[in-house]
Amino acid sequence: MNKPDYSKFLSSRINFVEPSPIREMVSKIAKKSKETLIISFAAGDPDPDVIPRKLYAEIAKRIFEDERRSVIYSPTEGLPELREEIARFMMNYERVNADPDSIVVTIGGSQAIDLIGRLILDPGDIVIVENPSYVNTILDWKQYGVRLIGIPMDENGMRTDVLEETIRKLRSEGKFAKLIYTIPTGQNPTGITMSMDRRKHLIEIASEHDLLIVEDAAYNHLIYEQVEIRSLKSMDKDNRVVFVGSFSKVLGTGLRVGWLYLPSELVNLFKAAKGPSDMCPPVPSQLVVHRVLKEGYFEEIRKNAIKIYKEKRDIMLNAIARYLPGIKHTKPSAGMFVFLWLPSHVDGWKIAEEALEKHAVATIPGAPFYTDNSGRNTLRLNFSMAPKDLIEKGIEALANLVK
Amino acid sequence: MNKPDYSKFLSSRINFVEPSPIREMVSKIAKKSKETLIISFAAGDPDPDVIPRKLYAEIAKRIFEDERRSVIYSPTEGLPELREEIARFMMNYERVNADPDSIVVTIGGSQAIDLIGRLILDPGDIVIVENPSYVNTILDWKQYGVRLIGIPMDENGMRTDVLEETIRKLRSEGKFAKLIYTIPTGQNPTGITMSMDRRKHLIEIASEHDLLIVEDAAYNHLIYEQVEIRSLKSMDKDNRVVFVGSFSKVLGTGLRVGWLYLPSELVNLFKAAKGPSDMCPPVPSQLVVHRVLKEGYFEEIRKNAIKIYKEKRDIMLNAIARYLPGIKHTKPSAGMFVFLWLPSHVDGWKIAEEALEKHAVATIPGAPFYTDNSGRNTLRLNFSMAPKDLIEKGIEALANLVK
To answer: Mean pLDDT, to the nearest integer, of A7-30?
Structure first.
């Protein structure tokens, strides 16, 4: 017996790997949920009862029975007919005339974001994100050794005036930001949707200062109000927006089907890098999504989801107004989240832990979404997952802890 | 319009990314297959008609109907009950007493291998592989900038005497190999199975010289002869074998379900790195595999696959003996491949292209599997995929080209 010292074998890259603070909370929630029924405001998942699982059952049955290719490899970029449906989807939903050959199907938006890190980001590179921003993008790109700069947001999204100032300041120091990452619609964690003026300004800034934009469109199709918005990609004359699409939030996170829509110059590089790392996205999932799109079910599923999530959002916002009067929070017109700024002396971690322990209410502290160790008094609340009749009770329990 | 120069934005890492020469051949095959019926000896896939797709259809229907969690995220390491079934599987099939908490479910074996690259391999690191070895592992680890050293094989697998000599030579030059990658059973591309003596010797060498071993067990359960073999992991007293498991070759490559069985010291690191890069493996696929294991179908599926692939292998070997007498080739007792060494003046690429164009017979040149630009006269032939009654015809067509 001559047990190795594993640390000796590890890549220097591991110094950039941080465990997700949120996954710890998620483990606690999973453990608690074995003991008791919890009210979950934690996940970034759709409501599994809003997903038409009976339809998927029928489709999956047909797929396995009829399609020999359901059980073998697809091309690494995804099945050609799925990429064609995604191109049609981008025309219908994003006003983007996408070439199917510039679409690469990925394991949800997550793998798309990781591939961008893998092929674009070097240690020391500067990346600009909203502050707060999606914790998993932050953690993934940190694995590539980048330096993140967070730009504050208001109710209209990323403060593009601050962005411009920040970029000018960097340039005056001889520094260069490679890309700007944004979730313009129904942002995670805040639920904020960027206004059209800000979108235009963002595109202008990227063009003027020669930056790439990564548009994470995960929540683009869960919109609850009449807001006039367009995807950044549809406004992208320069072709400097890398579009990260996902069916997760409408069709189900468990399927793991997302995509990259890339400038054509980058497609072969991304395919070459992706090929050996996954061979291909899961084929039964690809075929389920393909049928849902092709047979026209997507719009129906989306409309039903919007109807139900809008009701849930309103119940949550009303409960917050009632039980947490005066608390600063977002009023999302899209997405799945309400973001709370508790009184500045209140610790979001402590509230989240106590809410889980004492009241079986699951929430996610907002701090890990921040790039600058601020946001300790914040909480992210998901409104898509919990049953309607428990949302008010959950908010009431939270309010009692805050007091 | 101010189109960016994309090359300016790319990571230095892209210098290590090589397009797969095999994917080009696969594209040509896909194109040809639209025009005519091809006889495919190309893929590394199981026969879709050997996979019990009707059973999967029933299971998938039940899963979507009954399980709310089928459409939402699982933990990044996979569903707990799947990891428990995999632990049971490792006991039954690998004689390994695995802790479910040291199992991480991955997107096939591919993602497992990529994660090893990501967390273990630094640019300039030396990695030892069989020569030839699996082209996708070679391409993936090259993306991490490693230097590969290939060890020749004979009919008993990796020449461990040469391995020992190579390691001694490296040490005398002050160099250090981090790990040895092997596919000990039914190797890809050769179909060779490592003898017990070699396995023991390999483990001894790793222990003596303090190396890690990565055991790619993709073909461990497609064994056609009474050969007394054990997984390296089951012989691994030091705990220096990282085990890469896969259900792809028996249950279907399209599902994308594999796993890592890791030394416990490495589990949290791998989970932390994997989390943001994929969130989780596809949940419907995880649930299908879980049911197949739990309800005892795996052994039945495996036995049927072995029966059919053994017949196909024998048809192929008989046809080679008949139409290509005197040609050197492997006689696999496991796996999916026969490897051919054509006469030294024959170019495997040319034969593969001509066989496809002229006779609609798809094969894969062996050269990309070599670490040292040798093997130009080799071909990899898969025997699991083609219908029984077409195998002889395909080999005859190949033989006519070789002559």
So the answer is: 92
Torsion angle of alpha carbons B232, B236, B242, B246, nearest 10°? 40
How far from B367 is each of A306, A312, B22, B56, B356, CA to CA, in Å? 54, 59, 10, 37, 17
* Cis peptide upstream of residue B368 (ω within 30 degrees of 0): no
User: How confident is the model at residue A4, as a pLDDT?
Assistant: 95
Q: Is B174 on the interface with A (CB under 8 A)?
A: no
Strands A337-341 and A378-382, how do they pair? antiparallel
| B393 contacts chain A (CB < 8 A) | no
Residue A265 contacts B, CB cutoff 8 Å: yes
Distance CA B292, CA B173 (A): 51
Structure tokens at B322: 């008949």
Helical spans, DSSP H, in A183-296: 196-209, 248-251, 264-278, 283-294
Give the fold, CATH level 3, of A71-296: Aspartate Aminotransferase; domain 2 (3.40.640)
Q: Which CATH architecture has domain B73-295?
A: 3-Layer(aba) Sandwich (3.40)
Q: Residue A48: its chain B contacts at CB < 8 A?
A: 68-72
Does residue B338 or residue B23 have the better pLDDT? B338
- B57 CB neighbours in chain A (<8 A) are 60-65
Question: Which of B53, B252, B266 shows the shortest C-beta gap to A6?
Answer: B266
Q: Do A10 and B252 touch (CB under 8 A)?
A: no
User: The tokens of A125 are what?
Assistant: 């590179």
In whole numbers, what is the pLDDT of chain B averaged over residues? 96
Residue A28 near chain B (CB below 8 Å): no
Strand B103-106 and strand B258-261: the pairing is antiparallel
Q: Report how far residue B321's alpha carbon sits from residue A341's, in angstroms, rounded to the nearest whole number.
A: 76
- From CA B368, how far away is CA B134, in angstroms rounded? 9
* Residue B72 pLDDT level (bands cut at 50, 70, 90): very high
State which residue of chain B sits closest to A17, comparing Cα positions. B273
Report the share of chain A in percent with pLDDT over 70. Answer: 100
pLDDT given at position A69: 95
- Least CB–CB distance from A45: residue in B13, B48, B73: B73
CB contact under 8 A, A107 and B254: no
The encoded tokens of residue B156 equal: 């008993």
Contact B73 A253 (CB under 8 A): yes
Question: What CA–CA distance (Å, rounded) separates A208 from A201?
Answer: 10
CA distance B258 to A110: 19
Instruction: Please state the rounded mean pLDDT for residues A103-128.
Output: 98
Domain range annotation of chain A = 6-52+299-402, 71-296
Q: What is the pLDDT of residues A60-95, one digit of tens each?
A: 999 999 999 999 999 999 999 999 999 999 999 999
CB proximity B34 to A under 8 Å:
no
Can you spell out the DSSP letters for A290-313? HHHHHTTHHHHHHHHHHHHHHHHH
Please judge whether A19 and B268 are an interchain contact, meaning their C-beta atoms are less than 8 angstroms apart: yes
- CB-closest option in A48, A70, A118 to B71: A48
Per-residue exposure over A364-398, b if at least 16 CB sit within 10 Å of its own CB, e if not? bbbbbbbbeeebbbbbbbbbbbbeeebbbebbebb
Q: How far apart are CA B124 and CA A295, in angstroms?
A: 51
- Is B1 a residue whose pLDDT tops 80? no
Q: Give the C-alpha separation, A335 to A380, whole Å.
A: 12
Taking the CA of residue A324 and the nearest CA in chain B, the distance in Å comes to 30
User: Looking at domain A6-52+299-402, does it have CATH number 3.20.20.450?
Assistant: no
* Fold of the CATH domain B13-52+299-402: Aspartate Aminotransferase, domain 1 (3.90.1150)
B138 Cβ contact partners less than 8 Å away, ≥ 6 residues apart? B129, B148, B368, B369, B371
- Report yes or no: A189 and A137 within 8 Å, Cβ to Cβ: no
Q: DSSP assignment of A233-257, as one string? A: GGG-TTS-EEEEEESHHHH-GGG--
